[in-house]
Specification:
525 residues; mainly alpha; Amino acid/polyamine transporter I; two-stranded antiparallel sheet; 2 strands; membrane
Protein backbone atom coordinates (compact mmCIF):
# COMPACT_ATOMS: atom_id res chain seq x y z
CA UNK A 1 0.00 0.00 0.00
CA UNK A 2 1.58 3.30 -1.12
CA UNK A 3 1.46 6.63 0.70
CA UNK A 4 -1.57 7.90 -1.21
CA UNK A 5 -3.58 4.74 -0.51
CA UNK A 6 -2.72 5.00 3.19
CA UNK A 7 -3.85 8.63 3.24
CA UNK A 8 -7.14 7.77 1.51
CA UNK A 9 -7.73 4.90 3.94
CA UNK A 10 -7.09 7.13 6.93
CA UNK A 11 -9.38 9.83 5.55
CA UNK A 12 -12.18 7.28 5.00
CA UNK A 13 -11.85 5.95 8.53
CA UNK A 14 -11.72 9.46 10.00
CA UNK A 15 -14.91 10.47 8.17
CA UNK A 16 -16.64 7.30 9.35
CA UNK A 17 -15.56 8.05 12.92
CA UNK A 18 -17.07 11.53 12.59
CA UNK A 19 -20.34 9.83 11.67
CA UNK A 20 -20.05 7.75 14.84
CA UNK A 21 -18.91 4.35 13.59
CA UNK A 22 -15.71 2.37 13.85
CA UNK A 23 -14.18 0.71 10.81
CA UNK A 24 -15.35 -2.93 10.80
CA UNK A 25 -15.19 -3.82 7.10
CA UNK A 26 -12.15 -4.13 4.89
CA UNK A 27 -12.12 -1.27 2.36
CA UNK A 28 -11.48 -3.40 -0.72
CA UNK A 29 -13.87 -1.81 -3.26
CA UNK A 30 -12.17 0.51 -5.77
CA UNK A 31 -14.24 3.33 -7.38
CA UNK A 32 -14.78 1.12 -10.47
CA UNK A 33 -16.04 -1.72 -8.29
CA UNK A 34 -18.35 0.62 -6.37
CA UNK A 35 -19.81 1.63 -9.73
CA UNK A 36 -19.88 -2.04 -10.65
CA UNK A 37 -22.23 -3.07 -7.87
CA UNK A 38 -24.81 -0.40 -8.84
CA UNK A 39 -24.48 -1.13 -12.56
CA UNK A 40 -24.60 -4.90 -12.14
CA UNK A 41 -27.77 -4.66 -10.02
CA UNK A 42 -29.36 -2.57 -12.78
CA UNK A 43 -28.34 -5.42 -15.12
CA UNK A 44 -29.77 -3.78 -18.19
CA UNK A 45 -30.61 -6.51 -20.68
CA UNK A 46 -31.98 -9.15 -18.28
CA UNK A 47 -33.87 -6.45 -16.36
CA UNK A 48 -35.48 -5.17 -19.55
CA UNK A 49 -36.33 -8.78 -20.39
CA UNK A 50 -38.03 -9.20 -17.01
CA UNK A 51 -40.26 -6.13 -17.34
CA UNK A 52 -41.18 -5.90 -21.03
CA UNK A 53 -44.68 -6.91 -19.92
CA UNK A 54 -45.03 -3.34 -18.54
CA UNK A 55 -44.14 -1.59 -21.82
CA UNK A 56 -45.44 -3.81 -24.65
CA UNK A 57 -49.17 -3.65 -23.71
CA UNK A 58 -49.00 0.00 -22.64
CA UNK A 59 -47.96 1.67 -25.87
CA UNK A 60 -45.87 -0.95 -27.64
CA UNK A 61 -42.68 0.12 -29.45
CA UNK A 62 -43.22 3.88 -29.10
CA UNK A 63 -43.66 3.56 -25.33
CA UNK A 64 -40.63 1.28 -25.08
CA UNK A 65 -38.43 3.89 -26.78
CA UNK A 66 -39.79 7.25 -25.61
CA UNK A 67 -41.14 6.10 -22.25
CA UNK A 68 -37.65 4.88 -21.41
CA UNK A 69 -36.07 8.18 -22.47
CA UNK A 70 -38.45 10.34 -20.42
CA UNK A 71 -38.34 8.17 -17.30
CA UNK A 72 -34.53 7.95 -17.37
CA UNK A 73 -34.23 11.73 -17.02
CA UNK A 74 -36.45 11.74 -13.93
CA UNK A 75 -34.57 8.79 -12.44
CA UNK A 76 -31.31 10.70 -12.96
CA UNK A 77 -32.74 13.52 -10.81
CA UNK A 78 -33.45 11.00 -8.05
CA UNK A 79 -29.91 9.64 -8.32
CA UNK A 80 -28.29 13.09 -8.18
CA UNK A 81 -30.23 14.07 -5.06
CA UNK A 82 -29.22 10.83 -3.39
CA UNK A 83 -25.62 11.23 -4.53
CA UNK A 84 -25.36 14.55 -2.69
CA UNK A 85 -26.41 12.92 0.57
CA UNK A 86 -24.10 9.95 -0.01
CA UNK A 87 -21.16 12.27 -0.58
CA UNK A 88 -21.83 14.15 2.67
CA UNK A 89 -22.28 11.06 4.84
CA UNK A 90 -21.02 7.80 3.26
CA UNK A 91 -22.13 5.09 5.68
CA UNK A 92 -23.74 1.68 5.17
CA UNK A 93 -26.84 2.87 7.04
CA UNK A 94 -27.26 5.49 4.34
CA UNK A 95 -30.88 6.50 3.96
CA UNK A 96 -32.11 6.11 7.52
CA UNK A 97 -28.88 7.63 8.90
CA UNK A 98 -29.36 10.72 6.72
CA UNK A 99 -33.02 10.94 7.72
CA UNK A 100 -32.20 10.91 11.43
CA UNK A 101 -29.35 13.40 11.02
CA UNK A 102 -31.35 15.91 9.00
CA UNK A 103 -34.82 15.71 10.59
CA UNK A 104 -36.36 17.58 13.49
CA UNK A 105 -35.67 16.08 16.96
CA UNK A 106 -39.43 15.66 17.42
CA UNK A 107 -39.84 13.15 14.59
CA UNK A 108 -36.35 11.95 13.66
CA UNK A 109 -36.63 8.59 15.43
CA UNK A 110 -39.93 7.68 13.79
CA UNK A 111 -38.84 8.86 10.34
CA UNK A 112 -35.55 6.98 10.59
CA UNK A 113 -37.47 3.86 11.63
CA UNK A 114 -39.86 4.15 8.66
CA UNK A 115 -37.03 4.76 6.21
CA UNK A 116 -34.95 1.93 7.65
CA UNK A 117 -37.76 -0.59 7.36
CA UNK A 118 -38.82 0.66 3.91
CA UNK A 119 -35.22 0.28 2.76
CA UNK A 120 -34.95 -3.17 4.32
CA UNK A 121 -38.26 -4.36 2.85
CA UNK A 122 -37.50 -2.86 -0.55
CA UNK A 123 -34.01 -4.40 -0.67
CA UNK A 124 -35.27 -7.86 0.26
CA UNK A 125 -38.07 -7.54 -2.31
CA UNK A 126 -35.46 -6.54 -4.89
CA UNK A 127 -33.49 -9.71 -4.13
CA UNK A 128 -36.67 -11.77 -4.50
CA UNK A 129 -37.78 -10.05 -7.72
CA UNK A 130 -34.37 -10.25 -9.40
CA UNK A 131 -33.94 -13.90 -8.52
CA UNK A 132 -37.52 -14.68 -9.52
CA UNK A 133 -36.80 -13.05 -12.89
CA UNK A 134 -33.71 -15.27 -13.15
CA UNK A 135 -35.78 -18.37 -12.38
CA UNK A 136 -38.31 -17.45 -15.08
CA UNK A 137 -35.45 -16.98 -17.54
CA UNK A 138 -34.02 -20.40 -16.66
CA UNK A 139 -37.41 -22.06 -17.29
CA UNK A 140 -37.74 -20.03 -20.52
CA UNK A 141 -34.44 -21.56 -21.66
CA UNK A 142 -35.87 -25.00 -20.96
CA UNK A 143 -38.92 -24.10 -23.04
CA UNK A 144 -36.75 -22.91 -25.93
CA UNK A 145 -34.65 -26.08 -25.77
CA UNK A 146 -37.76 -28.28 -25.93
CA UNK A 147 -39.20 -26.42 -28.93
CA UNK A 148 -41.70 -24.80 -26.55
CA UNK A 149 -43.12 -28.16 -25.44
CA UNK A 150 -42.08 -27.61 -21.81
CA UNK A 151 -44.01 -25.14 -19.64
CA UNK A 152 -42.82 -24.78 -16.05
CA UNK A 153 -45.28 -24.97 -13.18
CA UNK A 154 -45.21 -22.47 -10.32
CA UNK A 155 -43.71 -25.13 -8.04
CA UNK A 156 -40.90 -25.88 -10.50
CA UNK A 157 -40.13 -22.19 -11.00
CA UNK A 158 -40.08 -21.67 -7.23
CA UNK A 159 -37.66 -24.56 -6.82
CA UNK A 160 -35.28 -22.92 -9.31
CA UNK A 161 -35.76 -19.58 -7.52
CA UNK A 162 -34.94 -21.06 -4.10
CA UNK A 163 -31.80 -22.72 -5.47
CA UNK A 164 -30.65 -19.40 -6.99
CA UNK A 165 -31.17 -17.50 -3.71
CA UNK A 166 -29.36 -20.22 -1.78
CA UNK A 167 -26.28 -20.12 -4.04
CA UNK A 168 -26.25 -16.32 -3.88
CA UNK A 169 -26.14 -16.51 -0.10
CA UNK A 170 -23.11 -18.77 -0.29
CA UNK A 171 -21.33 -16.37 -2.66
CA UNK A 172 -22.09 -13.34 -0.46
CA UNK A 173 -20.47 -15.04 2.52
CA UNK A 174 -17.07 -14.75 0.79
CA UNK A 175 -14.49 -12.17 1.86
CA UNK A 176 -14.82 -8.54 0.78
CA UNK A 177 -11.85 -8.70 -1.61
CA UNK A 178 -13.41 -11.57 -3.57
CA UNK A 179 -16.79 -9.82 -3.74
CA UNK A 180 -15.15 -6.59 -4.90
CA UNK A 181 -13.20 -8.26 -7.73
CA UNK A 182 -16.39 -9.94 -8.98
CA UNK A 183 -17.96 -6.54 -9.70
CA UNK A 184 -15.45 -5.78 -12.47
CA UNK A 185 -16.34 -9.07 -14.17
CA UNK A 186 -20.04 -8.20 -13.85
CA UNK A 187 -19.56 -4.77 -15.48
CA UNK A 188 -17.60 -6.15 -18.44
CA UNK A 189 -20.11 -8.93 -19.09
CA UNK A 190 -23.06 -6.54 -18.78
CA UNK A 191 -21.67 -4.04 -21.28
CA UNK A 192 -20.57 -6.74 -23.75
CA UNK A 193 -24.02 -8.36 -23.65
CA UNK A 194 -25.76 -5.03 -24.28
CA UNK A 195 -23.50 -4.17 -27.22
CA UNK A 196 -23.86 -7.66 -28.68
CA UNK A 197 -27.66 -7.40 -28.74
CA UNK A 198 -27.68 -3.82 -30.04
CA UNK A 199 -25.45 -4.88 -32.96
CA UNK A 200 -26.49 -8.49 -33.62
CA UNK A 201 -30.29 -8.21 -33.33
CA UNK A 202 -30.80 -5.82 -36.29
CA UNK A 203 -28.19 -7.73 -38.32
CA UNK A 204 -29.85 -11.17 -38.01
CA UNK A 205 -33.59 -10.48 -37.73
CA UNK A 206 -35.55 -11.88 -40.69
CA UNK A 207 -37.33 -9.36 -42.90
CA UNK A 208 -40.81 -10.40 -41.71
CA UNK A 209 -39.96 -9.33 -38.16
CA UNK A 210 -38.25 -6.04 -39.03
CA UNK A 211 -40.27 -2.89 -38.47
CA UNK A 212 -40.16 0.44 -40.25
CA UNK A 213 -38.93 3.55 -38.47
CA UNK A 214 -42.47 4.95 -38.40
CA UNK A 215 -43.72 1.82 -36.62
CA UNK A 216 -40.76 1.36 -34.26
CA UNK A 217 -40.61 4.99 -33.17
CA UNK A 218 -44.18 6.12 -33.66
CA UNK A 219 -46.63 3.24 -33.30
CA UNK A 220 -48.61 3.40 -30.06
CA UNK A 221 -50.42 0.13 -29.35
CA UNK A 222 -52.63 0.25 -26.27
CA UNK A 223 -53.61 -3.35 -25.43
CA UNK A 224 -54.56 -3.09 -21.75
CA UNK A 225 -57.32 -0.51 -22.22
CA UNK A 226 -56.25 2.44 -20.10
CA UNK A 227 -56.48 5.90 -21.75
CA UNK A 228 -53.48 6.42 -24.02
CA UNK A 229 -51.86 9.11 -21.86
CA UNK A 230 -52.06 6.99 -18.73
CA UNK A 231 -50.94 3.88 -20.61
CA UNK A 232 -47.80 5.78 -21.64
CA UNK A 233 -47.14 6.62 -17.99
CA UNK A 234 -47.60 2.95 -17.08
CA UNK A 235 -44.80 2.12 -19.53
CA UNK A 236 -42.48 4.06 -17.19
CA UNK A 237 -42.70 1.13 -14.80
CA UNK A 238 -40.26 -0.82 -16.98
CA UNK A 239 -37.34 1.66 -16.66
CA UNK A 240 -38.32 2.35 -13.03
CA UNK A 241 -37.85 -1.28 -12.08
CA UNK A 242 -34.75 -1.63 -14.26
CA UNK A 243 -32.88 1.49 -13.13
CA UNK A 244 -33.47 1.05 -9.43
CA UNK A 245 -31.70 -0.12 -6.27
CA UNK A 246 -28.82 2.24 -7.07
CA UNK A 247 -28.64 2.89 -3.33
CA UNK A 248 -26.63 -0.36 -3.31
CA UNK A 249 -23.46 1.70 -3.68
CA UNK A 250 -24.38 3.57 -0.51
CA UNK A 251 -24.63 0.35 1.50
CA UNK A 252 -21.07 -0.66 0.70
CA UNK A 253 -19.71 2.80 1.64
CA UNK A 254 -17.78 1.33 4.56
CA UNK A 255 -16.09 -1.14 2.19
CA UNK A 256 -15.22 1.48 -0.44
CA UNK A 257 -12.02 3.43 -0.95
CA UNK A 258 -12.50 7.22 -1.16
CA UNK A 259 -16.18 6.67 -0.43
CA UNK A 260 -17.24 10.34 -0.33
CA UNK A 261 -16.36 10.64 -4.03
CA UNK A 262 -16.64 7.08 -5.31
CA UNK A 263 -20.17 6.38 -4.04
CA UNK A 264 -21.98 9.45 -5.46
CA UNK A 265 -20.28 9.17 -8.83
CA UNK A 266 -21.09 5.45 -8.94
CA UNK A 267 -24.79 6.29 -8.50
CA UNK A 268 -24.85 9.01 -11.17
CA UNK A 269 -22.72 7.12 -13.69
CA UNK A 270 -24.67 3.89 -13.27
CA UNK A 271 -27.97 5.69 -13.95
CA UNK A 272 -26.57 7.71 -16.85
CA UNK A 273 -24.94 4.78 -18.65
CA UNK A 274 -27.94 2.54 -18.00
CA UNK A 275 -30.25 5.21 -19.42
CA UNK A 276 -28.27 5.51 -22.66
CA UNK A 277 -27.56 1.80 -23.22
CA UNK A 278 -31.10 0.85 -22.19
CA UNK A 279 -32.56 3.30 -24.70
CA UNK A 280 -30.39 1.77 -27.44
CA UNK A 281 -31.56 -1.73 -26.49
CA UNK A 282 -35.20 -0.67 -26.61
CA UNK A 283 -34.68 0.92 -30.03
CA UNK A 284 -33.14 -2.32 -31.31
CA UNK A 285 -36.05 -4.33 -29.90
CA UNK A 286 -38.63 -1.95 -31.37
CA UNK A 287 -37.15 -2.36 -34.85
CA UNK A 288 -36.89 -6.17 -34.57
CA UNK A 289 -39.92 -7.34 -32.57
CA UNK A 290 -42.44 -7.65 -35.39
CA UNK A 291 -46.00 -6.38 -35.12
CA UNK A 292 -47.72 -9.25 -33.29
CA UNK A 293 -47.51 -7.78 -29.78
CA UNK A 294 -50.13 -10.05 -28.29
CA UNK A 295 -48.25 -13.03 -29.68
CA UNK A 296 -45.15 -11.90 -27.79
CA UNK A 297 -47.10 -11.46 -24.56
CA UNK A 298 -48.86 -14.83 -24.84
CA UNK A 299 -45.89 -16.80 -26.14
CA UNK A 300 -45.55 -20.36 -24.75
CA UNK A 301 -41.98 -19.43 -23.84
CA UNK A 302 -43.58 -17.08 -21.28
CA UNK A 303 -40.89 -14.45 -21.88
CA UNK A 304 -41.45 -11.69 -24.52
CA UNK A 305 -37.75 -10.93 -25.06
CA UNK A 306 -36.91 -14.63 -25.34
CA UNK A 307 -39.57 -14.90 -28.05
CA UNK A 308 -38.09 -11.90 -29.89
CA UNK A 309 -34.67 -13.54 -29.77
CA UNK A 310 -36.15 -16.86 -30.91
CA UNK A 311 -37.73 -15.16 -33.93
CA UNK A 312 -34.44 -13.47 -34.82
CA UNK A 313 -31.70 -15.95 -33.89
CA UNK A 314 -33.48 -19.31 -34.04
CA UNK A 315 -33.31 -21.98 -31.36
CA UNK A 316 -29.54 -22.49 -31.09
CA UNK A 317 -28.61 -18.82 -31.35
CA UNK A 318 -31.24 -17.88 -28.77
CA UNK A 319 -30.07 -20.54 -26.33
CA UNK A 320 -26.45 -19.33 -26.63
CA UNK A 321 -27.41 -15.69 -26.06
CA UNK A 322 -30.02 -16.52 -23.44
CA UNK A 323 -27.44 -18.40 -21.41
CA UNK A 324 -25.48 -15.15 -21.07
CA UNK A 325 -28.68 -13.24 -20.20
CA UNK A 326 -29.38 -15.72 -17.41
CA UNK A 327 -25.77 -15.45 -16.20
CA UNK A 328 -25.96 -11.65 -16.03
CA UNK A 329 -29.32 -11.84 -14.22
CA UNK A 330 -27.73 -14.29 -11.80
CA UNK A 331 -24.93 -11.80 -11.16
CA UNK A 332 -27.52 -9.09 -10.52
CA UNK A 333 -29.06 -11.16 -7.76
CA UNK A 334 -25.68 -11.78 -6.19
CA UNK A 335 -24.87 -8.06 -6.07
CA UNK A 336 -28.34 -7.19 -4.76
CA UNK A 337 -28.09 -9.70 -1.93
CA UNK A 338 -24.68 -8.29 -1.06
CA UNK A 339 -26.03 -4.73 -0.82
CA UNK A 340 -29.18 -5.78 1.04
CA UNK A 341 -27.15 -7.68 3.62
CA UNK A 342 -25.02 -4.59 4.31
CA UNK A 343 -28.09 -2.42 4.78
CA UNK A 344 -29.58 -4.96 7.19
CA UNK A 345 -26.25 -5.19 9.02
CA UNK A 346 -26.20 -1.40 9.51
CA UNK A 347 -29.82 -1.35 10.70
CA UNK A 348 -29.09 -4.20 13.13
CA UNK A 349 -25.96 -2.36 14.31
CA UNK A 350 -28.30 0.35 15.57
CA UNK A 351 -30.56 -2.24 17.21
CA UNK A 352 -33.62 -1.68 15.00
CA UNK A 353 -34.20 -5.18 13.61
CA UNK A 354 -35.57 -8.16 15.54
CA UNK A 355 -32.68 -10.34 16.71
CA UNK A 356 -30.26 -7.45 16.12
CA UNK A 357 -27.90 -8.99 18.68
CA UNK A 358 -27.38 -11.95 16.35
CA UNK A 359 -27.57 -10.06 13.06
CA UNK A 360 -24.93 -7.52 14.09
CA UNK A 361 -22.06 -9.96 14.00
CA UNK A 362 -19.01 -10.06 11.78
CA UNK A 363 -17.71 -13.49 10.80
CA UNK A 364 -14.17 -13.84 12.11
CA UNK A 365 -12.93 -15.80 9.10
CA UNK A 366 -14.45 -13.91 6.14
CA UNK A 367 -14.81 -10.54 7.94
CA UNK A 368 -18.29 -10.19 6.45
CA UNK A 369 -21.76 -10.18 8.09
CA UNK A 370 -22.71 -13.77 7.29
CA UNK A 371 -25.76 -13.74 9.59
CA UNK A 372 -27.42 -10.86 7.74
CA UNK A 373 -26.67 -12.52 4.40
CA UNK A 374 -28.73 -15.55 5.42
CA UNK A 375 -31.36 -13.32 7.08
CA UNK A 376 -32.01 -11.54 3.77
CA UNK A 377 -31.85 -14.78 1.76
CA UNK A 378 -34.43 -16.57 3.92
CA UNK A 379 -36.85 -13.62 3.86
CA UNK A 380 -36.46 -13.39 0.05
CA UNK A 381 -37.40 -17.07 -0.22
CA UNK A 382 -40.46 -16.44 1.95
CA UNK A 383 -41.51 -13.54 -0.29
CA UNK A 384 -41.18 -15.82 -3.31
CA UNK A 385 -43.91 -18.04 -1.86
CA UNK A 386 -46.40 -15.37 -2.95
CA UNK A 387 -46.30 -16.98 -6.41
CA UNK A 388 -48.64 -19.65 -5.07
CA UNK A 389 -51.19 -16.92 -4.37
CA UNK A 390 -51.30 -16.03 -8.07
CA UNK A 391 -49.43 -14.09 -10.75
CA UNK A 392 -50.52 -10.70 -9.40
CA UNK A 393 -49.18 -11.56 -5.95
CA UNK A 394 -45.67 -12.23 -7.27
CA UNK A 395 -45.92 -9.12 -9.46
CA UNK A 396 -46.50 -7.20 -6.22
CA UNK A 397 -43.00 -8.26 -5.16
CA UNK A 398 -41.63 -6.61 -8.31
CA UNK A 399 -43.55 -3.44 -7.47
CA UNK A 400 -42.54 -3.37 -3.80
CA UNK A 401 -38.89 -3.46 -4.81
CA UNK A 402 -39.53 0.01 -6.27
CA UNK A 403 -42.32 1.50 -4.13
CA UNK A 404 -40.73 0.69 -0.77
CA UNK A 405 -37.37 1.99 -1.95
CA UNK A 406 -38.94 5.19 -3.30
CA UNK A 407 -40.42 5.85 0.15
CA UNK A 408 -36.94 5.38 1.61
CA UNK A 409 -35.37 7.59 -1.08
CA UNK A 410 -37.88 10.43 -0.72
CA UNK A 411 -37.89 11.05 3.03
CA UNK A 412 -34.19 11.96 3.54
CA UNK A 413 -34.26 14.19 0.44
CA UNK A 414 -37.28 16.03 1.86
CA UNK A 415 -35.74 16.16 5.36
CA UNK A 416 -32.68 17.93 4.03
CA UNK A 417 -34.76 20.93 2.89
CA UNK A 418 -37.85 20.73 5.13
CA UNK A 419 -36.09 20.80 8.51
CA UNK A 420 -33.54 23.10 10.07
CA UNK A 421 -30.17 21.33 10.01
CA UNK A 422 -26.49 21.92 9.42
CA UNK A 423 -26.07 19.95 6.24
CA UNK A 424 -22.55 20.25 4.92
CA UNK A 425 -22.13 19.17 1.28
CA UNK A 426 -19.51 16.61 0.35
CA UNK A 427 -17.28 16.58 -2.75
CA UNK A 428 -20.32 15.88 -4.97
CA UNK A 429 -22.70 18.84 -4.87
CA UNK A 430 -25.21 20.38 -7.30
CA UNK A 431 -24.98 23.92 -5.91
CA UNK A 432 -28.03 26.09 -6.61
CA UNK A 433 -29.60 23.22 -8.56
CA UNK A 434 -29.87 21.04 -5.45
CA UNK A 435 -33.37 22.19 -4.47
CA UNK A 436 -34.97 22.17 -7.97
CA UNK A 437 -33.56 18.70 -8.70
CA UNK A 438 -34.78 17.46 -5.30
CA UNK A 439 -38.30 18.81 -5.92
CA UNK A 440 -38.46 17.07 -9.31
CA UNK A 441 -37.11 13.83 -7.81
CA UNK A 442 -39.56 13.67 -4.90
CA UNK A 443 -42.56 14.72 -7.00
CA UNK A 444 -41.74 12.04 -9.56
CA UNK A 445 -41.26 9.29 -6.97
CA UNK A 446 -44.51 10.19 -5.21
CA UNK A 447 -46.48 10.18 -8.45
CA UNK A 448 -45.00 6.91 -9.71
CA UNK A 449 -45.60 5.18 -6.38
CA UNK A 450 -49.30 5.93 -6.84
CA UNK A 451 -49.15 4.60 -10.40
CA UNK A 452 -47.64 1.35 -9.14
CA UNK A 453 -50.80 0.72 -7.11
CA UNK A 454 -53.11 0.59 -10.14
CA UNK A 455 -54.20 -2.72 -11.72
CA UNK A 456 -52.97 -3.83 -15.14
CA UNK A 457 -56.30 -3.13 -16.83
CA UNK A 458 -59.24 -0.86 -15.93
CA UNK A 459 -61.63 -3.84 -15.96
CA UNK A 460 -60.23 -6.21 -13.37
CA UNK A 461 -61.22 -9.14 -11.17
CA UNK A 462 -60.23 -10.13 -7.65
CA UNK A 463 -57.56 -12.46 -9.02
CA UNK A 464 -56.17 -9.79 -11.36
CA UNK A 465 -56.10 -6.94 -8.85
CA UNK A 466 -52.84 -5.19 -8.06
CA UNK A 467 -51.93 -6.28 -4.53
CA UNK A 468 -48.89 -4.03 -4.19
CA UNK A 469 -50.65 -1.67 -1.80
CA UNK A 470 -51.76 -4.63 0.34
CA UNK A 471 -48.31 -6.22 0.59
CA UNK A 472 -46.46 -2.92 1.01
CA UNK A 473 -49.05 -1.46 3.37
CA UNK A 474 -49.15 -4.63 5.42
CA UNK A 475 -45.40 -4.73 5.94
CA UNK A 476 -45.21 -1.04 6.82
CA UNK A 477 -48.13 -1.37 9.25
CA UNK A 478 -46.36 -4.28 10.93
CA UNK A 479 -43.17 -2.22 11.26
CA UNK A 480 -45.14 0.67 12.82
CA UNK A 481 -46.92 -1.75 15.14
CA UNK A 482 -43.48 -2.97 16.22
CA UNK A 483 -42.40 0.65 16.79
CA UNK A 484 -45.42 1.53 18.95
CA UNK A 485 -45.80 -1.85 20.66
CA UNK A 486 -46.39 -1.41 24.41
CA UNK A 487 -43.30 -1.72 26.61
CA UNK A 488 -41.15 -3.50 24.02
CA UNK A 489 -41.74 -1.33 20.94
CA UNK A 490 -39.06 0.78 19.29
CA UNK A 491 -40.62 4.00 20.59
CA UNK A 492 -39.30 3.03 24.03
CA UNK A 493 -35.69 2.36 23.04
CA UNK A 494 -34.88 3.28 19.43
CA UNK A 495 -32.82 6.47 19.35
CA UNK A 496 -31.53 6.29 15.78
CA UNK A 497 -27.92 5.65 14.82
CA UNK A 498 -25.85 4.55 17.80
CA UNK A 499 -22.20 5.60 17.95
CA UNK A 500 -19.82 2.68 18.41
CA UNK A 501 -16.44 4.37 17.98
CA UNK A 502 -14.07 3.96 20.91
CA UNK A 503 -12.78 6.78 22.99
CA UNK A 504 -13.79 10.30 23.91
CA UNK A 505 -12.09 11.86 20.91
CA UNK A 506 -14.30 10.00 18.43
CA UNK A 507 -17.43 10.85 20.37
CA UNK A 508 -16.47 14.51 20.24
CA UNK A 509 -15.96 14.22 16.49
CA UNK A 510 -19.45 12.75 16.11
CA UNK A 511 -20.97 15.46 18.27
CA UNK A 512 -19.37 18.11 16.08
CA UNK A 513 -20.26 16.58 12.73
CA UNK A 514 -22.01 19.25 10.71
CA UNK A 515 -24.46 16.97 8.97
CA UNK A 516 -25.84 15.81 12.31
CA UNK A 517 -27.92 18.05 14.57
CA UNK A 518 -28.52 15.67 17.44
CA UNK A 519 -26.70 15.65 20.76
CA UNK A 520 -24.78 12.47 21.51
CA UNK A 521 -25.70 11.10 24.95
CA UNK A 522 -22.87 11.14 27.44
CA UNK A 523 -22.99 7.37 27.85
CA UNK A 524 -22.75 6.55 24.10
CA UNK A 525 -20.28 3.83 23.37
Amino acid sequence: MDTREIAVKQADEALLAQLGYKQEFKRAFTPLEVFGIAFSIIGLLPSIASVLFYAIPNGGPAAMVWGWAVASLFILCVGMSMAELASAAPTSGGLYFWTHSLSSPRCRNLLAWVVGYSNTIGSIAAVASIDWGCAVQVTAAASIGSNQAYVATNAQTYGVFAAIVFTHAIICCFGTSVLARLQTVYVILNVCLCLAVIIALPATTPAEYKNTASYALGNFSNINGWPDGYAFILSFLAPLWTICSFDSSVHISEEASNAATAVPWAIVNAIGIAGILGWAINVALAFCMGTDLEGLLNSPINQPMAQIFFNSFGQKGTLALWAIVVLVQYMMGSSMLLAASRQSFAFARDGALPFSRYLYRMNGFTETPVNTVWFVAVLAMILGLLVFAGAQAINAVFAISVTALYIAYSIPIVARFAFTNKFKPGPFHLGIMSLPVAVIAVAYMTFMNIVFFFPTTPQTTVAEMNYTVVVLGGTLILSLAWYYFPVYGGVHWFTGPVANVDGEEEREKKAGDEIDTKEVPADSS
